[in-house]
């Protein structure tokens, strides 16, 4: 591999987009370029690096060993370029794009409070992604600024390009059809879910961190994961599919109302979902400062007095 490498950011963005999408058509759409131009840029990156980054077939695109190894470096270089551009352009002059994941979420509560205290010239614009895993890709590419979710559930190479602030230990719950035998209870012990099947967004790559959290919680408790299903976009579609399929759903205490279903807190132990505010390393914006102040001092990081569960290795202090 050559030692004197000069690759402009546009070419690195092409490499990163294809690496994350593993699909040239989707990557081209993401970058708003023609697929032919994207393919040409990727070839230029490979030529300048002296390494093949992708294995291409008529059916799939996968990263080579060199591609996997170099991807974290490309992300860090792009992040540095973005920091330089932000320092030169005065990033606080533009709207801050904040993903809250929905209207009944911790993130949306933080955003609402931030808007109440933000200076008049600070614009906080809402986006609704279905998971932190998907949102993190857009944060690293500069298409999004802030999101919320389980930071430790992201891959290590993704976390390397991000900063985070713990916001809440959110109590988890179960959404049940109102005729379910457990629906009459005010709370549902985890042991009562043995033999039950719960939907936890398996099959949706954008919410992989939530599915992983569910796997850790279900392990050894005899709780089954619902079969993978394509990602559900929007609250209306979620309600339609969940009701049609009769699923019980692993949820959190902040959750949308679903007609014909009831939300019950989980106990014995109380499972906690760590929610953090997440943003790109080096981001400097007045709106980010406002959001951080809005997330602080809420008492949301207090642990329950009763027995509780956190994912293994998760810091709670």
TrEMBL record:
Q: Which is one Pfam family of this protein?
A: HTH_1
Asked if the Swiss-Prot or TrEMBL record annotates the protein with the keyword Transcription regulation, the reply is yes
HTH lysR-type domain mapped to chain residues: 7-64
Q: Which UniProt keywords apply?
A: DNA-binding, Transcription, Transcription regulation
UniProt GO MF annotations:
DNA binding; DNA-binding transcription factor activity
**Domain of life, per lineage:** Bacteria
Query: Family per UniProt?
Result: Belongs to the LysR transcriptional regulatory family.
Protein's name according to its UniProt entry: LysR family transcriptional regulator
